[in-house]
Design a protein that fits this description.
The complex is a heterodimer of chains A (about 375) and B (about 290). Chain A is of the alpha/beta class and about 375 residues long. Helices cover about 45% and strands about 20% of the residues of chain A. Chain A has two domains: about 200 residues, Rossmann fold (3-Layer(aba) Sandwich); about 130 residues, Response regulator (Rossmann fold, 3-Layer(aba) Sandwich), CATH 3.40.50.2300. Chain A has a five-stranded parallel sheet, with helices on both faces. Chain A has a four-stranded parallel sheet with strand order 7-6-8-9, with helices on both faces. In chain A, strands 10-14-15 form a three-stranded antiparallel sheet, with helices on one face. In chain A, β3, α4 and β4 form a beta-alpha-beta unit. In chain A, α2 crosses α12, α6 packs parallel to α7 and α12 packs across α13. Chain B is globular, with a radius of gyration of 19 Å. Chain B has a two-stranded antiparallel sheet with strand order 1-2. Chain B has about 290 residues and is an all-alpha fold. Classes of the chains: A alpha/beta (about 375), B mainly alpha (about 290). The interface between A and B is large, with 38 and 36 residues. Chain B: Pfam families: BPD_transp_2 (PF02653).
């Protein structure tokens, strides 16, 4: 009796072990997903990872890549800090032997992580906007998001041509990014005769902006340009601008419009413009498939940062297929540079330094939804 | 000189100042009576805001009942905190107590990140977006509510300390705990109630100020920082000091932010700490509780 039980359980075990082995006769392609899972960027990291997971599920459901290999995402927490990002990239390469890396959601993380991955492994940097990520990148580094300069030159044109304020005042964060924004738009908007009425810098930890907004409102500008990366600060600024009695146009900085912001800022965000790579109402079939898959698995509203994660998986899967390998970075890099790729955000092409050229859409919040202005 | 702008900035400053007063009163009370520097004070502010949020979304009750509920709940939490942390540590060195409170703050913040999620939330008060125009000055009803509630609560606290038996027990404990115990004051009871009062005040502040901005688990560190600037300015342990200190900080920030530079606003708080510690270390009001 004992022997038969043992035999039976042994057979059951063998069956269990054999089950997945049959399905996975080919090893998975391992992609490291290095995202912030704790700290201030944790929520953005969650949205980004969900985007990647939804896309990987789509690719796998369609039979995987390279003749039936599945994509496996290996997840690391970079805590939004350069040190942890570097350590995660090391672990991914040395211990887990991943084939490719997706990370670099924040510029500071991307800038230090690229030194560890330099000329060793295909690294796709995602939402970071600092020019140096690609300007001082390496031969296997690619970056999806437009740089802040690329965004502002396009956005400047759109503001001049379509939003057409007579005068504008800025409220911007007191750091490199905020200063760059003010310089760029003072030049760009000055060139089309928009009067610049003033600028207020706020600090990273501020929670009340009434004083600044009172000051800006008293300058009586046609529009206020709000530069806020941090969603909770952004939402507070839009609300308090309306609470301070400002009734003019509000313009959100490029790439900083997302469903969470709409949820938090509520009616204050109605009619606010921004510019984005992601137009949720686009009729792109790949975007529709991804949005549907995302909605099936996750509770959150799909956000721009999630589409970037999905785009990273999409181009890596396609390029690996074209190169016929998942771990020869030379061949994959050559494949990535070789053609225009159709993705969920539209067609994308990589420059020689790895910078992606993407479509930018003028968007606006209407009826609590992000719509593109055609 | 644009008088409308000046009036508006003064109004902004006074209202923000009242936020600070509400936050720092509990902090100064705990120090004045128990000699405890409580770094976890901001966490009770955060909990006040989140409990209001969850009371509204989970129980479906209105904003004002939710504020009351959250205040009472955070106040009750004061009993637990005193029993588990501060009462057992009362004979330890001040630094031990201070470090423990820092540990408590981290524990609560990270617990909140796990329990409430990392994403910021908006505490929806019906008064936030309604504008009240007094002459040329624009204020939201929520800000007027904060101001009124702060005045009421502060007056009640001050009256309780000055004129009730329990207030006398508190002051006796502050002056000399052993002497008070010898004359029959229940020190443990005083400790408990002081914490209940302090935590409740912090919770109320969070519940009222929460809707003005967004709430997130680390919002307490902002609150405790402002609280400390105010109590150092006004004098650790002094309730009138917290009032004057809070209003001063609010108005100075608004005027400096409005007329010099906003980037400078944050620095002003720190500059005040340094100046006060250099020239008047006991704060503007010293300590009336002693």
């Amino acid at each position: 009796m004992f022997r038969t039980t043992l035999l039976a359980s042994g057979m059951a075990l063998a069956l269990l072990a054999a089950g997945p082995a049959v399905a996975q006769d080919k090893p998975p392609v391992k992609i490291a997903a290095i995202v912030p899972q704790s700290g201030a960027g944790a929520f953005d990291g969650q949205l980004a990872l969900e985007g990647m997971q939804a896309e990987a599920a789509l690719v796998n459901a369609a039979g995987g890549i390279l003749g039936g290999r599945k994509i496996e995402l290996v997840v690391y927490d970079d805590k939004g800090t350069p040190e942890e990002g570097v350590s995660a990239a090391r672990r991914a390469m040395e211990q887990d032997k991943v084939d490719m890396i997706v990370g670099g959601w924040f510029s500071a993380v991307a800038l230090s992580m690229k030194e560890v991955t330099r000329d060793k492994i295909i690294s796709v940097m995602t939402s970071s906007q600092h020019p140096d990520v690609t300007a001082k990148g390496h031969k296997f580094l690619f970056r999806l998001n437009a740089t802040s300069n690329m965004m502002s030159s396009k956005y400047g044109q759109e503001i001049c041509a379509r939003i057409k304020p007579k005068s504008v005042a800025f409220i911007t964060i007191n750091d490199d990014f905020g200063r760059l924004e003010v310089d760029n738009y003072t030049k760009l908007l000055g060139a089309c005769n928009v009067e610049i009425k003033g600028n207020e810098f706020y600090n990273r930890n501020d929670t009340d902006f009434t004083v600044a907004l009172t000051k800006l409102k008293s300058l009586n500008p046609d529009a206020i340009y709000v530069s806020a990366i941090n969603t909770s600060q952004g939402a507070t600024i839009y609300r308090q601008a309306r609470q301070a009695g400002f009734r003019g146009t509000l313009i959100a900085s490029a790439g900083n419009m997302n469903p969470k912001l709409i949820e938090l800022a509520g009616p204050a965000l109605e009619g606010v413009y921004s510019i984005s790579l992601y137009a949720p109402d686009s009729d792109n079939a790949k975007l529709k498939a991804w949005t549907e898959q995302y909605g099936k698995t996750f509770k959150n509203q799909p956000a721009f940062i999630g589409t970037l994660g999905a785009q990273a998986v999409q181009v890596l899967a396609a390029a690996a297929d074209k190169a016929g390998t998942a771990n020869d970075p030379d061949k994959i890099a050559a494949a990535l540079r070789s053609q225009t790729w159709p993705t969920l955000l539209g067609e994308i092409k990589f420059e020689e330094n790895g910078q992606a050229l993407q479509n930018l859409y003028l968007i606006r919040v209407e009826g609590g939804k992000i719509v593109s202005i055609k | 000189m644009d008088w409308t702008l000046l009036g508006q900035q003064l109004a902004n400053g006074v209202v923000n100042g009242m936020n600070y007063v509400l936050i720092s009163t509990g902090l100064t009370l705990v120090f004045g009576v128990l000699r405890v520097i409580n770094f976890a004070h901001g966490e009770f502010y955060m909990l006040g805001a989140f409990l209001t949020y969850f009371a509204m979304s989970a129980l479906g009750i209105g904003y004002l009942p939710a504020v009351l509920l959250a205040t009472v709940a955070v106040g009750a939490l004061g009993i637990l905190v005193n029993r588990l942390f501060f009462w057992p540590l009362r004979k330890e060195h001040e630094f031990t107590v201070l470090l423990s409170s820092l540990g408590l703050a981290l524990l609560v913040t990270h617990g909140a990140e796990l329990g409430f999620g990392h994403d910021p939330k908006y505490l929806n008060s019906p008064f936030t977006d309604d504008i009240l125009e007094v002459g040329t000055i624009v204020l939201t009803q929520q800000r007027v509510l904060i101001f009124a509630a702060a005045v009421l609560v502060l007056a009640a606290t001050y009256a309780a300390i000055r004129w009730t038996t329990f207030g006398r027990m508190m002051r006796a404990t502050a002056q000399n705990p052993e002497g008070a115990a010898l004359t029959g004051v229940d020190i443990r009871f005083v400790h408990t109630i002081t914490f209940v009062l302090a935590c409740g005040l912090a919770g109320l502040a969070g519940a009222l100020v929460g809707p003005v901005a967004m709430i997130f688990p680390t919002v307490g560190s902002w609150a405790v920082l402002k609280g400390f600037i105010v109590v150092i300015l006004g004098g650790l342990g002094s309730v009138p000091g917290a009032l004057v200190g809070g209003l001063t900080l609010g108005v100075v920030e608004a005027l400096a932010g409005g007329y010099v530079s906003l980037g400078f606003m944050e620095a002003i708080g720190y500059a005040i700490i340094i100046l006060v510690l250099l020239w008047r270390p006991q704060g503007l009001f010293g300590s009336v509780a002693r």
